[in-house]
């Protein structure tokens, strides 16, 4: 009687969380590399660990292997003297006797589920070229035919990435690229205390039931149904343009694979849509090294959760337009009329400073300084129609800012929810995004105060003694965007 298939869980966070906790046990400052390497494997992709020797790169690979039930593991260190037999298996003597060129692949890379290849770029170009098809298509050219391989994920390690055509093509096969350095000064003491469990590569406690092949397939099917919303696609498009402007080429294949990684990340957390905050994973897929990844993360953190409609620079220009109008209206003067409605004149010659300035400017041989001229000394006054028009326009601005503040509050809550529920969130990015949204919130609060002060300024303009006055043209400013 055939064994009964295990039930496939629907609560993926509950299924994965204890596995992750067990895999991380004994590791120091390796949470993000471990989790992203596992996420890459769940997505059917490969991970490249970049860093100096002795930074637990091989341990990470062995831990990822433990997450999969009945997974065959293969590990090899490559050198410039490595021969194909070390990776792909020895030649079959019987096949050679029958004029066939075939390898015994059992126990070697073409037979592995999870593999760790140390110093992946040290091998010669012939081996790297052979690996390209295996990593991408999961097929191995064995003799006259192609052998299907059960490979789930390869974790590669290198101290540095060489710059040549073959290495570049091979480098592109690793979707996730992670820099792994020595532990910080703060983590050194813990490293020394937990060195034994780290050295063994095995979790200190019993690993919860590993994922079966059926579960991996089920998760892949769930991920395929996860939606990529329009806002996520817009952010990805903008990121692609920004990278291209900087001269950073990212292949179309890599963008497609990134989309699938994002879907898998959402599926693992029980969501049917990718969140814009999931783009925190993008830097590790579109940038080549830690420096570039930091720049991409900074670019994303400054934009995610902030709509162009309520970006502080745009609103600042709008507020400044009202402030400039208020300043102009406060400084405006009117012609001074007497009680009979006639313009008042004054002998400017009686105002010594004005007379001297005028005489110096035009000469005073004929007594021009003593001529009667119009006086502009009276400050302009405004009627109710003018002031209501101005305050109504500012009220619209205040309403917009208040709406934007509510939207921003919702985005900050969404970020907090994502951070609380995410299995993969990079803590550094979360801190950057929080700081960016806090900065926008502070800017909106300040603009709200300035707009209210401008409104109060318009209300306190000098008023006409009688009459409603006239309604002014609206203050010209950038249009509001929805």
TrEMBL record:
Residues 43-184 form the AAA+ ATPase domain. It comes from Thauera propionica. Keywords: Coiled coil. InterPro entries: AAA+_ATPase, MoxR, P-loop_NTPase, RavA-like_AAA_lid, RavA_ATPases. The keyword Coiled coil applies. The keyword Iron does not apply. It comes from the Bacteria. Residues 387-414 form a coiled coil. This is AAA family ATPase. PANTHER family: ATPASE RAVA. The lineage of its organism: Bacteria, Pseudomonadati, Pseudomonadota, Betaproteobacteria, Rhodocyclales.
């Amino acid at each position: 009687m055939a064994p009964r298939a295990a039930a496939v869980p629907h609560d993926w966070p509950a299924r994965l969380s204890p596995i992750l906790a067990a895999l991380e046990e004994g590791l120091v400052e390796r949470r993000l590399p471990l989790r992203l390497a596992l996420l890459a494997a769940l997505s059917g992709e490969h991970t490249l660990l970049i860093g100096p020797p002795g930074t637990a790169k091989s341990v990470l690979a062995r831990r990822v292997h433990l997450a999969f039930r009945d997974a065959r593991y293969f590990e090899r260190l490559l050198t410039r003297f490595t021969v194909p037999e070390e990776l792909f298996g020895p030649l079959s003597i019987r096949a050679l006797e029958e004029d066939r060129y075939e390898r015994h692949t059992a126990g070697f890379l073409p037979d592995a589920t999870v593999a760790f290849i140390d110093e992946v770029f040290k091998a010669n170009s012939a081996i790297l070229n052979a690996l390209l098809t295996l990593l991408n298509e999961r097929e191995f050219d064995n003799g006259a035919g192609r052998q299907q391989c059960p490979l789930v994920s390869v974790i590669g390690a290198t101290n540095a990435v060489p710059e040549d055509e073959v290495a570049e093509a091979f480098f592109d096969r690793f979707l996730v690229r992670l820099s792994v350095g020595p532990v910080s000064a703060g983590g050194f003491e813990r490293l020394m205390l937990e060195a034994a469990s780290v050295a063994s590569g095995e979790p200190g406690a019993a690993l919860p039931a590993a994922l079966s092949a059926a579960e991996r397939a089920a998760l892949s099917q769930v991920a395929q149904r996860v939606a990529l919303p329009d806002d996520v696609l817009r952010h990805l498009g903008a990121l692609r343009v920004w990278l291209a402007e900087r001269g950073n080429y990212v292949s179309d294949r890599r963008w497609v694979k990134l989309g699938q990684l994002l879907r898998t990340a959402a599926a693992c957390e029980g969501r049917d849509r990718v969140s814009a905050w999931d783009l925190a994973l993008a830097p590790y897929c579109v940038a080549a090294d830690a420096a570039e990844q930091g720049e991409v993360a900074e670019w994303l953190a400054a934009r995610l959760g902030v709509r162009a409609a309520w970006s502080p620079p745009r609103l600042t220009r709008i507020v400044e337009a009202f402030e400039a109008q208020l300043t102009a209206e406060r400084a405006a003067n009117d012609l001074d009329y007497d009680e009979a409605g006639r313009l008042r004149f004054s002998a400017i010659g009686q105002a010594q400073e004005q007379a001297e300035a005028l005489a110096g400017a035009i000469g005073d041989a004929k007594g021009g300084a003593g001529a009667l001229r119009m006086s502009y000394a009276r400050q302009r006054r405004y009627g109710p129609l003018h002031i209501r028009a101005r305050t109504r326009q500012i009220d619209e601005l205040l309403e917009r800012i208040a709406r934007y503040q509510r939207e921003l509050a919702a985005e900050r809550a969404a970020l907090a929810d994502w951070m609380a529920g995410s299995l993969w969130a990079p803590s550094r990015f979360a801190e950057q995004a929080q700081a960016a949204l806090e900065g926008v919130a502070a800017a909106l609060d300040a603009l709200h105060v300035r707009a209210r002060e401008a409104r109060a300024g318009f209300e306190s303009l000098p008023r006409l003694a009688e009459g409603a006055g006239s309604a002014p043209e609206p203050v010209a400013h950038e249009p509001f965007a929805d």
